[in-house]
Specification:
Bound molecules: pyridoxal-5'-phosphate
Order of helices and strands: HEEEHHHEHEHEHEEEHEEEHHHEEHEEH
Helix content: 25-40%
Distance between the termini: 44 Å
Strand order of the largest sheet: 4-12-11-10-7-5-6
Largest sheet: 7 strands, mixed
CATH class of the domain at 63-320: Alpha Beta
Strand content: 15-25%
CATH topology of the domain at 63-320: Aspartate Aminotransferase, domain 2
Structural class: alpha/beta
Shape: globular
Length: 427
């Protein structure tokens, strides 16, 4: 009998995978806490939370139970003209904890669609209020997803180069690298002062896919304050940073100025099911409250507010809001702080970046390309040590599920330092 991996290689087209160069895929048959287990019984420590989605560990019994109950009572129903308890309860609970304050929850399927919805809400807000604004501003090197609107507001890069001719025009503000914050703030001020900017979309505190580039809450506060000054709507893309990744529940919790819209996905369901959310303030919602149907939001997906995903999200929130989860995140943050201090002295480490439960090391490899060869060497080396780390070019980062133990974190750190020692030996 052919293995799952062999059968896969005949029928599957994987995401972000050069299929000819990298045909093999490891077949996972079980998940247990921070571990994924393959068809041959190998256990891998999931140090990147399966593309940043998993919060509490794989196959968590509390989430599994709630999902199972929901599947047995009502798995899904259309969400126009109908509603259900899990969707309403989840909206009620999220509105209590989201930065803002937010007033309404719009459901979709993933992070990219959460962003698409936010862009449409922002543009139509200005049309509905009789003062059309056409421009969107984003940060250079941003990543907001792979659908066309989300690609358009993302930095122009290898991720979207093939489609650049088809992306609408967006103005980009230079990233606020340390020491360059004032330039970014001034660039944003110049763009906003033209008075035609509908929305500023931003990954708060950390640009994930760009390579875990971090910046201070102080700069973000200045960005938000400028948007308020010039009447530009703020789209806070917390698809990666949401649900505790940066320490507090949401990155924007560190600010005194609230966003107008928040995009959520990934950890929303604890990483169990796909779902996206765009939360909006009453100011946005009220602009769509009209007798004229042409002013409603023309957007919806077949699986909008999927009841099973909502049940998973409610179960994940139970776990996230428990004191034990806050303590777990604090433990990860403290462990990362210790590792960061040690790594800052390493001759092969060009930069160490750390916020909350996320740590990133930029390795001196002579290139920062997403396709750099050190990336594949690192990836394979860590797999050989039974750790899943998916470096972004020469940047290796750890973004673990909150159930990870101190010992498991130390093991991941030791794999990274062992790799660096081996590299130093070959240079
Ligand atoms: C900040 C941010 N926004 C949006 C997305 C897109 O989310 P999805 O992959 O669920 O479409 C991502 C994905 O990594 C992200 O990091």
């Amino acid at each position: 009998m052919a293995s799952i991996s062999e059968r896969d290689s005949r029928v599957i087209w994987h995401p972000y995978t050069p299929m000819k160069i990298w045909p093999e895929a490891i077949a996972i048959t079980r998940g247990e806490g921070a571990y994924l287990i393959d068809e041959n019984g190998n256990r891998y420590l999931d140090a990147v939370s399966s593309w940043w989605v998993n919060l509490h560990g794989h196959s968590h019994p509390h989430i599994a139970e709630r999902v199972s109950e929901q599947l047995h009572s009502m798995e899904h129903c259309m969400f126009a003209g109908f509603t259900h308890e899990p969707a309403v309860a989840l909206a009620e609970r999220l509105l209590e904890i989201l930065p803002g304050p937010m007033n309404r929850i719009f459901y979709s399927d993933n992070g990219s669609t959460a962003v698409e919805v936010a862009i449409k809400m922002a543009l139509q807000y200005f049309i509905n209020t009789g003062n059309p604004r056409k421009r969107i501003v984003a940060l250079e090197n941003a990543y907001h997803g792979d659908t066309f609107g989300a690609m358009a507001v993302s930095g122009r890069s290898v991720f979207n180069a093939t489609f650049s001719d088809y992306l609408f025009d967006v103005s980009f503000v230079p990233f606020p690298y340390p020491g360059k914050e004032a330039e970014s703030v001034e660039a944003l001020r110049t763009l906003l002062s033209a008075g035609d900017v509908a929305a500023f979309i931003v990954e708060p505190l950390i640009q994930g896919s760009a390579g875990m580039y971090m910046y201070s809450a102080d700069v973000l506060e200045q960005f938000f304050a400028l948007c308020k000054q010039y009447g530009t709507l703020i789209i806070d893309d917390e698809v990666m940073t949401g649900f505790g990744r940066t320490g507090p529940l949401f990155a924007a919790d560190r600010l005194s100025t609230g966003p107008d819209m928040v995009c959520l996905s990934k950890g929303l369901t604890g990483g169990t099911m796909p779902m996206g959310i765009t939360a909006a303030t009453s100011k946005i919602f009220d602009a769509f409250w009209d007798d004229d149907r042409s002013r409603m939001l023309y957007h919806g997906h077949s699986f909008t507010a999927n009841a099973t995903s909502c049940a998973a999200s409610l179960a994940s929130l139970d776990l996230l809001l428990a004191d034990s989860c806050t303590e777990a995140r604090a433990m990860i943050e403290a462990a990362h702080t210790g590792f960061a201090a040690a790594m800052r002295k390493h001759p092969l480490v060009a930069d160490v970046r750390h916020t909350g439960t996320i740590i990133a090391l930029e390795i001196n490899a002579g290139t920062t390309s997403y396709h750099s060869s050190i990336r594949d060497r690192m990836y394979r080396y860590f797999l050989s040590r039974n750790v899943i780390l998916r470096p972004l070019g020469n940047i290796v980062y750890v973004l673990p599920p909150y159930c990870i133990t101190k010992e498991e974190l130390q093991y991941i750190y030791s794999c990274i330092t062992d790799f660096l020692s081996a590299e130093a030996g070959t240079q």
